[in-house]
Design goal:
CATH topology: tt1808, chain A
CATH class: Alpha Beta
Strand content: 15-25%
Structural class: alpha+beta
Mean pLDDT: 76
Shape: globular
Strand order of the largest sheet: 1-3-2-6-5-8
Largest sheet: 6 strands, mixed
Low-confidence stretches: 1-31
Number of helices: 5
Helix content: 25-40%
Radius of gyration: 16 Å
Number of strands: 11
């Protein structure tokens, strides 16, 4: 993507007033939740007030979705505002952490902090409008408890998304952004 990519524009406004905030890592839910199919998970998630991610049959509670610090909220608002302004007039949209991303190869539903989807969102029919598998850009915010997952497992999962062009990792403590771009050979 060129210098006008969504991540480049968002980067300019990310840390203007962001400061330090906390971002809790996802942890497994109590053992009482059985393994589920993707369809069962989607029904369960639709009826739950708590956000859960889906990992090949395991349901994982995402603790970072509620009670975010004011700085976290501000940082995400700055990213969203930058993306909305940059994407105006394009066939792309900015989505918040409320939209699940489906990874076909590993059968997982994940909640990134932000994503950009161009064109019509696509996902398994049973997911309806609650998920997509075709983001062009994904944003994740690091914290001490999530750095290994965001830079490791999630990064690997996101690389398998065919439409993904950029994976943007935001540092929470220092004003630093790492942009990982898909190369011409698909890597």
């Amino acid at each position: 993507m060129d210098s006008q990519s969504p991540s480049a524009v968002a980067n300019s406004a990310l840390f203007s007033e962001a400061g330090v905030y906390t971002f809790a890592m996802a942890t497994p839910t109590p053992a009482r939740l059985p393994r589920m199919t993707p369809e069962q998970y989607l029904k369960f998630q639709a009826e739950s007030e708590t956000k859960y991610q889906y990992h090949e049959g395991l349901v994982v509670e995402t603790l970072d979705m509620a009670g975010a610090s004011s700085n976290h909220v501000l940082l995400n608002a700055n990213v969203t505002a930058s993306l909305v302004n940059q994407l105006r007039g394009r066939a792309c949209r900015a989505d918040s952490a409320d939209l699940k991303i489906w990874t076909h190869r590993r059968r997982r539903y994940l909640y990134p902090d932000q994503s950009v989807i161009c064109g019509k969102p696509s996902a398994p029919p049973e997911a309806g409008a609650h998920a997509a598998d075709n983001p062009k850009v994904i944003f994740e915010v690091l914290s001490p408890s999530s750095v290994s997952v965001d830079r490791g497992a999630k990064s690997t999962l996101y690389k398998h998304l065919e439409q993904l062009e950029e994976y943007v990792v935001l540092e929470q403590v220092e004003p630093s952004v790492d942009v990982h771009r898909r190369q011409g050979n698909g890597t």
